[in-house]
Amino acid sequence: MQDPFGRDVSYLRVSVTDRCDFRCVYCMAEDMTFLPKKDVLSLEELDRLCGAFVRLGVRKLRLTGGEPLVRRNIMWLINRLGEHLKSGDLDELTVTTNGSQLEKLADQLYAAGMRRINVSLDTLNEEKFVAITRWGKYDKVMAGLDAADRAGLKVKINAVALKGVNDDELDHMVEWCGKRGYDLTFIEVMPMGDMGEHQRVDQYLPLSMVRAELQKNWTLEDIDYNTGGPARYVRVKETGHRIGFITPMTHNFCESCNRVRLTCTGTLFMCLGQDDAADLREPLRASESDELLQQAILEAIDRKPKGHDFIIDRRSDKPAVGRHMSVTGG
Ligand code: SAM
Ligand code: SF4
User: Fold this and answer.
1) Is residue 34 part of a domain?
2) Ligand whose nearest atom lies closest to the CA of 97
3) C-alpha 193 to ligand 1 mean position (Å)
4) Integer Cα distance of 99 and 180 in angstroms
5) What spacing in Å lies between the alpha carbon of 105 and ligand 1's midpoint?
6) Is 119 domain-assigned?
7) Cα of 290 from ligand 1 centre, angstroms
8) pLDDT bracket for residue 312 (50, 70, 90)
9) Hey, how many other C-beta atoms are within 10 angstroms of the C-beta on 139?
10) Which of 195, 326, 328 to mutate to test the pocket of ligand 2 (most atoms within 8 A of CB)?
11) Arithmetic mean of pLDDT, 287-301
């Protein structure tokens, strides 16, 4: 599938639920209202939708959320999607998770064909972890990471850079990831969804500053590693591991964008930072054949916008995009 700007769309991210067992301060308000269950696609419908994308040329699938691994019976879907790996129609099946269920599921993920996972962890300090995630259990996530290591899953840590929160432990995180054999990606806070009492401008820490700080203690070598996504990578000479920087606020990464995002209600967002979307639930439910669905997908890809336009500034602390990150899964 090619969009109007000649970009190949080969990567689908699927938010399988908007629910989560954490309430990270930059992602959700504590008293979130979630989607009514009846609006959420069944696992069978998600399987059918993903299958249609794979037939149209998607080579990489990432499950996200909300917390994808808290959806009931999620392993059924993951095992089904794993069949596309076996047939050679899919190159990679992966997940972005907060790690809370990994202790239980890591082995099953590996058995389904997953080889790499992203685990979100913003701090190595238990107190801060509780302050950031509100409901998270630090020990559980650590046990989950151990289980992922044992299962043979390659882990990449995602950390949101938060001013005044984790900016004093960046070096420690680099060192810890180096020791555990993990790559690490820093993410800037994006203006998505209303956060209740938490003001975004207060959390925003530009990654140019993170990088400058890290350079005081580590040798960061620019490398040509590119996953087609927004991260720019360096290699830490001392640990041999990569650090990625995802800088939607200060860097335009849209030229190489290869992805689209599906929500758990079957809405397809062609750009994380734009509101335009296509409803795939109706064509999915309208007939048992996939013809209408395929047509709707191709029409949507034809509307993929050139790029996004995020702004965080002090005059307007309004989100650039009204939906929360947990709707599209980041
Ligand atoms: N629950 C899973 C997790 O936390 O990994 C998957 C969904 S979560 C929405 C995906 C990623 O988005 C996480 O790494 C999270 O830190 C990040 N995220 C959430 N809200 C964000 C925001 N406003 N700005 C930047 N990153 C955000
Ligand atoms: Fe849940 Fe992930 Fe959002 Fe945290 S970032 S509240 S773990 S969806």
Assistant:
1) yes
2) 1
3) 12
4) 15
5) 20
6) yes
7) 32
8) very low
9) 10
10) 326
11) 96
